[in-house]
Amino acid sequence: MNKDKILKMVIILAVVVVIATGLSRILQKDSISLSEYASLHSPAPTEEPTQKPAEPSGEPAETPDTASPQPTEPPASSSPEPSPAGPLLTGASLNGDSQADERVFLEEGFYYEPLSDNLRRYITGVSFPASGSENGAPEPEISLDELRYVHILHMDFEGSPAEGELICNETIAQDLLEIFYELYRSEYRLEKVLLIDEYDGDDNASMEDNNTSCFNYRPVEGSTRLSKHAYGLAVDINPLYNPYITYETDGSEKVQPASASAYADRSLSFPYKIDEEDLCCKLFLEHGFTWGGHWNNVKDYQHFQKTK
Question: Of the candidates 60, 231, 215, which has an alpha carbon nearest to the alpha carbon of residue 122?
Answer without folding.
Answer: 215
